[in-house]
Specification:
The chain is mostly helical. It has helices at 2-25, 29-47, 56-74; strands at residues 53-55, 92-94. It has one domain (2-94). Helix 1 (2-25) packs antiparallel against helix 2 and helix 2 runs antiparallel to helix 3. The radius of gyration is 14 Å and the shape is globular.
């Protein structure tokens, strides 16, 4: 899992930074702020204080941050929705399982 994760992160980070630069060039400062905050939250959840397990709620939030960033990149080409049983949000799951 860690090998997979270490391969995904640099590519994702590069693409996200490229999107932020593109937004900045077009003076979309509010969008730059939102996507930068989303990227920070994404990595905060990714690091998870070094733990390999997390709550399902945090894992879902991690996916939401990822999808928000991808939506900024792909706009109308990406649509998604969530149906979540909130009684399951506190169970522990392996990190990046979703």
């Amino acid at each position: 899992m860690m090998a997979l994760y270490s391969q995904i992160n640099p590519h994702f980070l590069y693409n996200t930074l490229d999107t932020i630069v593109w937004m900045a060039e077009f003076n979309q400062s509010e969008d730059v702020i939102k996507i930068t905050k989303s990227l920070a939250q994404f990595f905060r959840l990714s690091l998870n204080q070094g733990n390999n397990v997390t709550t399902l709620g945090d894992e879902i939030e991690h996916v939401k941050q990822y999808l928000y960033i991808q939506k900024q990149r792909y706009q109308d080409k990406l649509n998604y929705s969530f149906e979540i049983d909130e009684t399951l949000l506190d169970i522990m799951v392996p990190k990046i399982i979703l």
